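Thread: quick sanity check before group meeting

JM: Hey all, I'm pulling together slides for Thursday and realized we never actually wrote out the predicted structure for the chain we discussed last week. Dropping the sequence here so it's in one place. If anyone has concerns about the input, flag it before I start.
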Amino acid sequence: MPRIKKKRVAISIDMTPLVDIAFLLLTFFMLTTQFKPIEEVEVTFPFSHSELKLPETNTMTLYVSKDSRLFLGFDSAIMMERMFGQANRLRQANEVKLDELGDLLIKARISNPKLITIVKSDAQSEYGTVSDVIDILQKVQITRFNMVTNFEVDKQS
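JM (edit): ok, ran it. Output follows.
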C-alpha cells in the first residue's frame, strides 16, 4: 500500500523585529560609547648653547615625537581652522603623515606668507625622520626655519 505524502508548508519568518532590534542595539552603542581621549605627546628637546628668542605670532610649528610621529600646529585658531577644519580649531597641533606634509606646508604658506617655521624635535626621535622633515621643508622652498632646543649652561665657569 502506498504511503500518503504530506504537503510541506513553507515557513515564513517575519524579519521586521530583527531589523528593529539591530537598529536599537546600534543606536544604544553609538550613544553610550565614549570616544578615545586626545593623548598628549611629550617632546623633550635636545640641548644647545643658542639664546635666540622665538616670535610669538605668525608661527607654524612642526613637532616630531620620540616615536617619529609628526604634528603640525599654528599659533592662531584661524589658521588651524583653515588647515584642518572647524573641529580642530582649538587644538594646539594636529597629527599629519609625512607624505601629506609638503602639501600642507604649501597651503599654509599660501594662506599666510609671513609664517615663521619652527621645528620642535624630541631628543629621542629618529634622525631619519627629522632629516625627512628638513628635506620636505627645502622642497617646498622653506629654507629658513628654527630648530628648538633646550638651553645648555656651560659647566666650565
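AS: nice. The first strand starts at residue 47 and ends at 48. The helical segments are 16-32, 77-84, 98-111, 127-139.
JM: adding both to the slides.
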